[in-house]
Batch of 2 targets.
Target 1
Amino acid sequence: MAETLQLFVGNIVHCEKPYEVSSLEKGFVALKGNKIVSVGDATSLANFRATIEVKYNILEYILKDSQVLIPGLIDTHVHACQYSNVGLGMDLKVVPWLWEHTFPLELKCKDIEYSRRCYDAVVKKALDYGTTTASYNAAIYTDSALVLADSVIKHGQRALVGKVNHTRQGPDYYVETHKEFIDETRRFIEEIQKKKSSLVQAIITPRSPTCSDLENMELLIGLGKEFGLRVQTHLKESLEGFKVFTTPPVKNPNCKTKIFPKKTIYAHCVHLSEEEIQALVNSESTVSHCPNSNVNLRSGICDVRALIKAGIHVGLGTDVSGGCSLSLMNAMRYAVACSNFLSFGKDNYEPIGWRDAFYMATLGGAKVLDLDKEIGNFEVGKEFDAVIIDMNVKDGPIDYLEDCSALETLQKFIYAGDDRNVVSVYVAGRKVK
C-alpha cells in the first residue's frame, strides 16, 4: 500500500535567512509524516507531481488567493500561570504589579483543578492565534507545572515547560525552601521525561538571577547540565526592579554570568550597557523581546536593533500577563512600534520593520529556543509546523476589498490580523486547528 504524502499548494512566505523574507507565489510544500520532503515554486510543481504520483497517495490542499502558508509562530516567553490576570494591573509598574496581582494569582496554581482550567485555556488560545511553539513559565509547584505539560500534549502544541524556582525576594506564602528548589525541579524533569513526548521538554526556570542565593543557583544550573536542558530567566526588565528582580550580568559579584550556561534565554533585557550586551554575545545567550509587557508596565523600551547588530539572536515573547495578549501578531506590532519610538529624533537610527518582526516570530524564535534545526521555516528535513492565514474571512477584523500579493497579505495579517484570520494550524504535520 502506497504511503500518503501531503501537498500544500498556494502562496508561501517564510524566512530562509535572518531578517529576510522569501515569498513563493503559487508554490508548494510537501510533507511525509511530520517532515518536509520538498519545497518549490510554481514552475517545479508539475515535475514534482510526476515524480511522486506512482509512489504516494497524495492529499492535496489548494490555498485560496487570499490565503498564505507561513511557519508556525513561536512565543519565546509566556507565563501560563498568569493568564487569568490578562488586562489587570496595567496601571502599575513591575514591582507593585508582581506583589499586588501576580504572586497572589500564582499561589492559586497550587490547586490542580484551577491549574488544569487555566492551562487548557492558555494552550487552546495560543494555538488559535497560530502559536505552534511556546516557552512557558509555570508556577513554583511541580504538580501544577506537570499539568501544563499535559495540556500542551493534549492539544498538540510544541513547548518548553519550566517549573519556576524562587526561594527569596518574594512573599512568604510564595517561595520554596532550599530543599524544594532542587528536589522538586529534579522530580519535575524526571516526570517530563516519563511522558516521552516528542513535542514537550523541560527547561530550567529560575525566576531571576537574584531570586535565590548563589549556591542554590549553581546547583540548579548543574541540574540543567546533568539533563542537557536550556535555561530561561528574566534580566534587566526595569530600572525599579534591579535590586529586587534582576541582576546586571557582569557587575554584581553575588551572581556572575559564569554560573549561567551558554545559550541561556534572557527575557526583556531592556536596560543593558554595551559591556553587558557583549557579555551576552560571549556566552551565546539569546533574548526574548517582550514589547507589549515592557510598555504596559512602563519598564522601558528594548533597543532590539542594538542587540541584532551585536549578533544576538532575538525572538518575541507575549509575556502574558505583563503582556495583555497571547497574540504574536500583537507582539510583532508592538516590536515595530517600539523600535519606531526609539528612532524619533535620531537621524541615523534604523528601526526594525515588519520583515524583522516576522523573522523574530518564526525562524528567529526558533534560534532563540535552539530549535532551528527542527522548526522555524519550510526547509527540507524540518518538521512541518505551519499556519494558514486568510485575510478574507467572514466577520474578520478588516474588509478585504482588493486582491493582495502574498507579502501584502502577510503585512495585513501582522498589522491588522487576529485569531479569526488563522484558519488552520499544524504542529509536526498534525492539524490542531
Note: The radius of gyration is 21 Å.
Target 2
Amino acid sequence: MTSNTSPRILRKLGNNEHFSSTRHHLGIYRCVTVTCRHLHPPSSHPHGTSVSPSFYAALAAVVKDHPMLRVGIAGEDTNDAHFTHVPQIDLRNHVSVVEVPCRSVREYEDGVARRQGWEHDQMYEDLDVRPPWRVAILRPGSDDENVLARLRGHEDVLFAFHHSLMDGTSGRRFHELLLSALALQRKEQLPAEPACVLSFPEPPASIPEPQEAVVDFSLSVRFMVGVLWDQFGPSFLKAPKQPVWNAIPIDFSLPYRTRVRPVDIPPEALSALLAACRSRSVTVTTLLQSLVLASLSSRLASAAEAPAFAGVTSISLRPFTTPSSMDPAYESSLRVLVAAYTHQFSPEAVSALRAPGADTTALIWENARRVKGELAAKLATMPRDDIMAVLKFIGDWFAFWRGRDGKQRADSWEISNIGVLKNPDGADVKATRLLFTNGAMAAGPPIGINVASVAGSHLTLGLSWQDAVVQDELINHLADDLSAYAAKFHETGNFV
C-alpha cells in the first residue's frame, strides 16, 4: 500500500520511541507479541479460516478508541522520525487466520510458539501510511477428531506490534479491551458483513505523549559524571568490569530469527509460589530472577565460561507519571512507558549455588530477597538518575547501534512481567492463557524471560532468543528447570 500524498505529521517520536524505531529499521528488533488464548462457548466455537463479524466489530471499537493503533511512522530511516496520521484503515489488512497443522495438542502448542517466533522476524512495510501492528488468529487444523475435541472452542489471538507504538503492558491491555469489546458486541445484533474499513478524515487533536513528557526525569551531576566516565573514561584508569556470561558478542551479520519456548506454570503451583513470595516479602519477578540464576549457574557450570551473570528487570513507568503533564484522555491509553534495571550476580553468589551440598532452596530465596531490595531502592529514587533520561543525549542512534556491533553484551538475560489479564465480568469468551515475548534482542541480552498470566489460570513464561546466539539445549534446560522448580516447590516446599 502506497500513497502519492505526504502523510500529515502528528509529533516527533520521543526518545524511547526513537530507540525502538531505529532498531526496527536496522532489523535488530522488530516487534513485541502478546498472544491471548480465547475459550469460546460450545455453541460458537471457531472453525475454518473466517473472521467473525463480532471480532471485526470489537477490533474496530478498540482501534477507534486508541490513537496509537491509528498512527504510522515517517522517516524511520532518519534521526528525525515522526508519527503520522493514517486517514483510513482496512482491518482486513491487519488480521489473518492461520490454521496450525497438528496431530496432537503438543503439536498445536509447538505450532503456536513457532508462529509467535515468526511474527517477531517480520518487518513492517509502508510505515508512514499503515499502522505497524498485526493480529493473527491461530486455530488448530487436524484430521484427528480426538485432537480437535480436546482443542474445541480454543483459538489463540496473536497481537504483534512495533515497539514505538506501545510497550508489553499495553499489549496485555489491548487484549483486555478486545475481550470487553467482544462481550459487548456479542450482545448486539451485528450485520452479516461488518464495516472493516475505518475512516479517520481528520487527525486526532493529540496522541499520547512520549514518556519523557509525562515522567519528570532528573539527572544529578554525580550520576552524569559516572555515565560519562563509564562511556568515555580511559580504560587504563578504570577498574576492569566483572566479566559476565553473555553468550556471544553482538553480531548483526547473523540471521535474525527469533525462537520461542513457552513454560506454563499451572494455577495450583502458581498459588503456592505466590503465597511463599508474600510470606517472604518478595515478588514473582524477583523470584524468577533468582530461579534463572540458579538454573544457568548449574547448566553453565564452568567458572571460566560463566563466572558471573547480569539480569535485567523491566520497570513500568506508569506509577511515576506526573498527572499535571499528562492528557487525562490518555491516562490508561496504549503507549510506551518503560525503563529497566540491571542486577549484578557476583562470582561469589554463583559459586555458592555451584558448591557441592549447597542448600539451593535457601540460596534461591536469599538471592530473591537481594534482588527485591535492589529494586525497592531503585524505585524509591525514580524517576531521578535513570538511564532513560540519558537517551536524549544520543543524537545519532544509527551510529550508536553500529558502534555496538561486535561488542560484548552487557547483560545475560532480561525479565519483563506485564502482569495479570482479568477477564471481563459476564463474558462468554474467556481468556485462559497469555503468552508474551520480546523479539530476539540482537543488540541486548541473549535471553528474554517474558512473564504474563490470566487471573485464576496459568502463569506463562515466554522464553525468547536469537537462533545461533544461544544454543537450543541451554534454553531447553532452562525451561525444564523453571517448570521443575515450580512443580517441586508445590509438592515439597523446596525447589530441588
Note: The longest strand covers residues 133-141.
